[in-house]
Amino acid sequence: MVYFANSPDRMVPDALAGFARVHADLVLHDEPGGFLCARKPSPNRRVGLLSGGGSGHEPLHLGFIGAGMLDAVCPGRLMASPHNRQVLGASRAVARAEGVLHLVKNYTGDRINFGIAAERLAHEGIDCARVLIDDDVASDSAESAAGRRGTGATVLVEKVLGAAADTGLGLHELAALGADLAARCRSIAVASAAHTAPTTGRPAFELADGELEYGVGIHGERARRTVSRPPLGELVGRMTEALLASLGPAPGESVVALVNGLGGVTRLELYGAAHEFTLRLDRRGLTPERILVGDFVTALDMRGFSLTLMRADTETVKWFDAPAYTPAWPR
Amino acid sequence: MLDHYAPEDDATYTGAAFTEGWMRRFAASARATEAQLTALDQRVGDGDFGVNLMAGLDATVTALDAEAAAAPAMPAGDRAGRPLQAAATAFLDGVGGTSGPLFGLLLEELAVAAAGPALDMTALRAGLTGGLAAIQRVGEARPGDKTLVDALYPACEALRVCPAEAGPRAALAHASRAAWEGVRGTARLRARRGRASYVGERATGVPDPGAVGIGLLLSSAGATVTALAPLLADPGTAVPH
């Protein structure tokens, strides 16, 4: 086994126990309930913010629990949706006067389990709304009913919505803002090697030397295309064009950019990609108001990176800049 | 033993003893057909539907036994929905996968609708129709997608057109026949959503296991189902209520 772990089954529970211990000043771990929540949540919120999803994408979502971002997170097993019971328990724990908002990445399992929890909350009289994050342009297809996958933009939406929630916005205002934010985000990811599956110890898929998976997700699924590997500048140029074609920003519009490592690439490489990315955005007259570089939304040890763009007006940038007290938000 | 819970001498009775007997017969039906359900799901899905359904129903029976032990004589003012709520919670909290919790949503809507001493026609219609709506909101499946909706939707239609004076037990018999017709129809469908959508044409000819589960639920209101084959061959043979 490639991983340092007691066993594949112990990876998530051991990491959660460690995380809760290390960040005991910021988070509370309800182990039987299967969720973690903020120890010192933002005092002014009228709506609790909750997210969750399969494990293996750390620091998402756990790292973003705390004042200014998420009130609670429900981690599932490795790359598997959390159970509706976890979402229900966490929602009850963090719902405010106007209820709870679920931030859900667009995957069938997550949609169904958060949806079941929402039905149960309705029976209990707790108001609940959902923001669906669907930024991955590689899964944009007219033939599929499933829609675009939710990937790197998740962390941007969690940050901006968290700051907006701190201003005391209500449930429906936040849900509308979240839908608008999600619509303003696009991502694309590439990988030169798949993640290692913990149960088999083998790569989730095989790639030859010099090949690149173009348009990967974060669960070890193959992309639609395998391409021969171009130099970094050419690759980032192609990714940038794909993002801009889907997002359609006006020249001169402000954007927030994210260069995200998928778990197995170095910071040296990510800054190289950031250089090529910002060069191209500058050339297109798009001002990256803020640029984040690092591992935010990973796929175990996948050797790859993603690029995300969010069209950002002045207020969005202000919310992006607002302080957050979480284990992993870098600013 | 099971018939103890559904007094046969009074075909109009639909109180808590009836709904409890219904849930216990549902468990007995699933146990009797679990191997067949698993075999079906291995052809169109990941093969875990029979196990998940049984897990929910074992937890249901455990919860019902615990309630019976705590209050051996059914209290006056007992709600018809109480045993249904025990089943709903067992499915929603205890079962993995997606089909199991979806059954929980249906049972929860039935339980909430059956807030009175009897499961009357109004409660039955509201519960099943509300359950269908909840399942469609969450699972986003439509009739024709080869999912459990293809059994539940015609069952709701049958309830809607069934005259109120027929009474809930006869209405459930109509609904279960309509559900089994729907189950048979799923064998002809190609899946667009749900478990069978991943195997494409290979699922053609095989009825959807989730839809079979709905058929088992509704038939068990009348009697325990011991074999799927007669119902799959001819829904008109649906067990008497």
Describe the structure.
The complex is a heterodimer of chains A (331) and B (241). Chain A has 2 domains: 10-182, 3-Layer(aba) Sandwich (Rossmann fold), CATH 3.40.50.10440; 185-311, Dihydroxyacetone kinase, domain 2 (Hypothetical Protein Tm841, Chain: A,domain 3, 2-Layer Sandwich), CATH 3.30.1180. Helices cover 33% and strands 23% of the residues of chain A. Chain A has helices spanning 11-22, 84-94, 108-124, 153-166, 171-183, 232-247, 267-283, 314-321; strands spanning 27-30, 35-38, 48-55, 72-78, 100-105, 128-133, 185-193, 211-214, 225-228, 254-261, 287-294, 303-311. In chain A, the strands form 2 sheets. Chain A has a 6-stranded mixed beta sheet, with helices on both faces. Chain B has helices at 16-44, 49-70, 81-94, 99-113, 121-139, 149-161, 168-186, 209-219, 229-233. Chain A binds chain B through residues 83-85, 108-109, 111-113, 115-116, 118-120, 123, 145, and chain B through 92-93, 96, 98, 101-102, 104-105, 108, 112, 134, 137-140, 192-193. Chain A: It comes from Streptomyces pyxinae.
Give a quick account of the main beta sheet of chain A: strands, pairing sense, barrel closure: 6 strands, mixed
> What is Rg of chain B?
16 Å
Beta-strand content of chain A: 15-25%
Percent helix of chain B, as a range, is: 55-70%
Number of strand elements of chain B: 0
* Span of the ends, CA to CA of chain A: 35 Å
Assign the CATH topology of chain B: Serine Threonine Protein Phosphatase 5, Tetratricopeptide repeat
Q: What's the CATH architecture name of the largest domain in chain A?
A: 3-Layer(aba) Sandwich
State the helix count of chain A: 8
Q: The biggest beta sheet of chain B, please?
A: none
Which class do the helix and strand fractions of chain B yield? mainly alpha
Show unreliable segments of chain A: none
What form of chain A results from the Cα inertia axes? Answer: globular
Q: What proportion of the residues of chain B form beta strands (DSSP E)?
A: under 5%
Number of strands of chain A: 12
> Given this structure, which CATH class of the largest domain in chain A is correct?
Alpha Beta
